[in-house]
Design brief:
Layout: H1 14-38, H2 47-59, H3 69-83, H4 88-113, E1 123-138, E2 141-151, E3 162-168, E4 179-187, H5 200-207, E5 209-215, E6 220-222, H6 231-251, H7 255-266, H8 274-283, H9 293-312, H10 315-320, H11 323-341, H12 346-363, H13 371-384, H14 392-420, H15 424-454
Parallel strand pairs: 3-5
Antiparallel strand pairs: 1-2, 1-4, 2-3, 4-5, 4-6
């Protein structure tokens, strides 16, 4: 042993070793700082990540924080940003903290906004009266959602704002917008079956759904004034979904084929038998039944190309009007109308935001596909529905889109150079290869989520965008 206490067989001098590590650390930090500075134009892409981290922080708490905590955090981070705004690195860190605090505040405010009474115990044989806002047609039963309900065995301040009740197919289903009275047994929203599984209780809270149950008799119509306000639009689109389902059932004799066709048209997957749904899941095609990027893109693209073709057929209009931009406006309106028709689920909202950004970029003569597009869609989607960020639909769809855009950003220039001087056969191979590459990238991006959530790996099917 030496006087310093180190073994004699060690060849490296400890102080020199420590200095070497310090130099390596400084060098590594310098490279990271240079890389961060070079990526300065893309710092904005991390703002939605910080915002989502704030939302995750709120939902990760074991108990509800004080009502003022989110406001205080945002105010403190805003003050810090103003204090360091002249120093670029410090201002970037302060902006990230501000977005994290903003995500926490938005999630907290959303929780307070949707707060409504929820059933804490079962209520048997109660007389329930309410307005039908949604009708879900299922094999052997019909499930209705009631709003502005009254329950005979509950006080008004204890009555949930929204109820979901199942009716037997032996009784006729009420029309959307009508007010009905029925006898039903009500149950609290079901808690998770095991730790880490789907938490329907939490999802029901954010949906304003305070109870579920089943009717023990038919639903009787009650005289009531018609719906008013925004509910008129919701009821109209709900009725349109019913009309579509009825016409499909009348045109297609096979009930399984009719249910699948209905799901592809208006998003109602409830009528598909469980065995058929298992076949879709095992084949990796279940995502086609979820109304998202594929369906919204078709809805917007058809009207975009039809309007543009019609305007291009008129020389006076084609030479004087910006027909491409006008067609893009019609594409946005078509996507919005289709989103309302299918009930505006979270994947559809995300898709219509991105479709709107693409069409808006066309109208402004900008590049339509970029990572900023995804960042904007993610930020708005999380702000509209913070709780939805915890679900697999949000996580897997954004993982696939981000991976696809990142992959093609890196390889698009080289691929364009290869295709420029290629013949028609090689171009065809490039097209096929692009489809395969899209499937591989999307599958690898969603693989961790699929394994963790569903305990299965996704098939190599082209993922929706």
């Amino acid at each position: 042993m030496t006087a310093a206490g180190w073994p004699e067989e060690d060849t490296d001098d400890p102080p020199a070793l420590g200095g070497r590590w310090r130099r390596l650390s400084v060098r590594a930090f310098g490279r990271l700082a240079a890389l961060a500075e070079a990526e300065g134009e893309r710092w904005v892409l991390w703002l939605p990540v910080a915002f989502g981290a704030g939302v995750s922080l709120y939902f990760g708490l074991r108990q509800e924080p004080a009502w003022w905590s989110g406001v205080a955090a945002v105010a403190g981070c805003a003050a810090l940003l103003m204090a360091v705004r002249r120093r670029l690195a410090a201002a970037g860190a302060a902006m990230a903290l501000l977005m994290l605090a903003a995500g926490f505040l938005v999630a907290q405010a959303h929780s307070y906004r949707v707060a409504a009474p929820a059933l804490s115990h079962s209520v048997a044989a109660a007389i329930v009266t309410g307005r039908v806002m949604a009708v879900e047609r299922r094999p052997g039963a019909t499930r209705i959602t009631l709003r502005d309900a009254t329950v005979s065995k509950l006080m008004p301040d204890r009555t949930p704002a929204s109820l979901r009740i199942r009716l037997s197919d032996r009784f006729p289903a009420p029309a959307p917008g009508s007010v009905v009275r029925l006898r039903a047994t009500l149950l609290p929203p079901q808690a998770p079956a095991e730790p880490g599984s789907f938490d329907f209780q939490r999802r029901a809270w954010f949906m304003g759904l305070g109870a579920t149950g089943f009717a023990t008799g038919p639903a009787e119509l009650v005289e009531a004034p018609p719906v008013t306000g925004w509910s008129v639009i919701a009821v109209a689109f709900e009725q349109a979904r019913g009309v579509i389902a009825g016409r499909v059932a009348a045109a297609i004799g096979d009930p399984v084929e009719a249910s699948v066709t209905t799901a592809l048209l208006n998003g109602e997957e409830f009528g598909i038998p469980e065995s058929t749904m298992d076949d879709f899941r095992n084949s990796g095609l279940a995502h086609l039944l979820s109304i998202s990027g594929l369906h919204v893109g078709i809805a917007a693209g058809i009207l975009f190309y039809v309007v543009r073709a019609l305007f291009a057929a008129v020389p006076y209009v084609a030479l004087r009007w910006p027909i491409k931009k006008i067609a893009a406006l019609f594409g946005i309106l078509s996507a919005l109308a289709y989103t309302l028709l299918v009930g505006a689920p979270l994947p559809t909202v995300r898709s219509v935001l991105m479709t709107g950004m693409v069409m808006g970029a066309i109208m402004l003569d900008r590049h339509p596909l970029s990572m900023r597009l995804v960042a904007f869609a993610g930020l708005v989607t999380v702000a509209m529905d913070p709780e939805g960020m915890l679900g697999p639909s949000f996580q897997m769809s954004f993982a696939a889109v981000v991976a696809l855009i990142a992959a093609f950003e890196r390889g698009s220039v080289r691929l364009a150079e290869w295709r420029r001087d290629a013949g028609w056969l090689v171009r065809g191979l490039f097209y096929v290869g692009g489809i395969l590459l899209t499937s591989v990238v999307a599958t690898l991006a969603t693989l961790p989520f699929s394994l963790f959530i569903f305990s299965r790996s996704p098939s190599m099917a082209c993922c929706r965008t």
